């Protein structure tokens, strides 16, 4: 099986198991948790400048719908507790 990688930094995405009541309508997503990824790093300034909030986003891929894009985070730890344990 081919590994899914972040299109911004090339890091392998990690599987995040979603709670049953999530708005994503699927079991899991793949997310980039590289804290040095430029997409994530730039996101803090972008969100502060455009929305005056302390937040960023990480790159995510939804294998059920084939879509990709940002997933919001309010701290470097957001979503990390949901990483699948292989």
Verbal overview:
The protein is of the alpha+beta class. It is built from one helix and four strands, in the order ββαββ. The protein has one helix spanning 38-51, and strands at residues 14-17, 28-31, 56-62, 67-73. It has a four-stranded antiparallel sheet with strand order 1-2-3-4. It starts with 13 loop residues before the first strand and ends in a 13-residue tail after the last strand. The mean pLDDT is 94.
Give the gist of this structure.
With 86 residues, the protein is α+β, with helices and mostly antiparallel strands. The chain contains 1 helix and 4 strands.
Q: What is the H-and-E element order? A: EEHEE
Structural class: alpha+beta
Number of domains: 1
Give, in spatial order, the strands making up the sheet with the most strands. Answer: 1-2-3-4
Strand content: 25-35%
Give me some keywords for this one.
four-stranded antiparallel beta sheet; alpha+beta
Protein topology:
Blueprint: E1 14-17, E2 28-31, H1 38-51, E3 56-62, E4 67-73
Antiparallel strand pairs: 1-2, 2-3, 3-4
